Amino acid sequence: MSVQLPSVKTIWFYPNGTIKAIIAFISITLFSLFSLSPMDSLALFCTGALIAGGLFWFVCILGPAEQKGKRAVDLSGGSISAEKVQDNYKQYWSFFRRPKEIETAEKVPDFVDTFYNLVTDIYEWGWGQSFHFSPSIPGKSHRDATRIHEEMAVDLIDVKPGDRILDVGCGVGGPMRAIASHSRAKVVGITINEYQVNRARLHNKKAGLEDLCEVVCGNFLEMPFQDNSFDGAYSIEATCHAPQLEDVYAEIFRVLKPGSLYVSYEWVTTEKYRADNPEHVDIIQGIERGDALPGLRNYKDIAEMARKVGFEIVKERDLAKPPAQPWWTRLKMGRIAYWRNHILVTILSALGIAPKGTVDVHEMLFVTADHLTRGGETGIFTPMHMILCRKPE
Ligand SMILES: C=C(CC[C@@H](C)[C@H]1CC[C@H]2C3=CC[C@H]4[C@H](C)[C@@H](O)CC[C@]4(C)[C@H]3CC[C@]12C)C(C)C
Ligand SMILES: C[S@@+](CC[C@H](N)C(=O)[O-])C[C@H]1O[C@@H](n2cnc3c(N)ncnc32)[C@H](O)[C@@H]1O
Q1: What is this structure's pTM?
Q2: Phi, psi (5° rounding) for residue 132?
Q3: Which of 97, 182, 259, 275 is at 20 to 30 A from 355, Cα to Cα?
Q4: What ipTM was estimated for this complex?
């Protein structure tokens, strides 16, 4: 008969293991206290209390990672097996080393898929279930500010309960759930990444929103949906991954019913961006490399692409412009917590709990957080250039 031994992970990280560890710690402490002189006992007790307090502050209080959803001990490489994470990370970088040839455009969806296998768990753990930014709102939490930004999208496309709407590039479905609850519309999300599909379905089930939210794995450049089959559509910080914006816009146009609306929050360079300024170029290239972007577009190109595929432009505005408060505050404030996360990821990876390569991926995100913050502070980049379009009747 074979005996199933518990893994290190089971003993030390699951509640049962944690209780055993606490009991062991208390027993050793009590034993030491009783076998030492009163002064030594007091010193030992104070040191122990200081270390425990420090650890508690470091792990739980210092900018806690989003606690619902993912834990550091569950970090994985998405659909990539643990031993291949490091190779896939190297493969991801090789994309940027090649010259931008025409054939590269065809490889973009695969490269984006690899990227999301590598980052999805870290995003969920350190940011939450909505993979986008939102302007900060004084007196409101980040979670509330995120929800308000998402609800604004569905309010703009004017949908009714029971309507069928499309979420283009839905991630693990944070926006989809907020939008379905707010509007009571049926939301169909599409993402290229199979791991995200599974995560999104799991979250939908847990939230009791399975009837309103459906998730499909597919490429938004060739969507598996019929012509004229949606009452509205939105994309939140997702179409920036398309090598040609007009290709994804044309697909959205095709599946929308005539007269219905589409809103997008686009990642773009602003009017302040200067291609002859080396600092600007460095920031934008840093954003492209750390966020799997085939090339950031300028805000001026967005409406042109939308018109080219047949849309009428109803509204266009950078939602990051004043009176909106900075969207990068949360990113900047989290810096000390990122160091804490980095130490955690390094330890977990060394223990073999997180896949090798997780440290590299985390470091890449650390660097991109800085480029994004600089993009926001200089005003040369926005992740929320909003465009509202209508498919003519
Ligand atoms: C729309 C896109 C993603 C936008 C954001 C959700 C993510 C962009 C950068 C990400 C992060 C940077 C730093 C990470 C940190 C080092 C780690 O400890 C915890 C997670 C981060 C905060 C992570 C979270 C998600 C981002 C903010 C793109 C890809 C088009
Ligand atoms: C930054 S995430 C945003 C996710 C979601 N909109 C949110 O705000 O949480 C970008 C999303 O676009 C999806 N995506 C990128 N390229 C895609 C493609 N060619 N086809 C389908 N989905 C794609 C990614 O898989 C990911 O889910």
Answers
A1: 0.87
A2: -160, 175
A3: 97
A4: 0.99
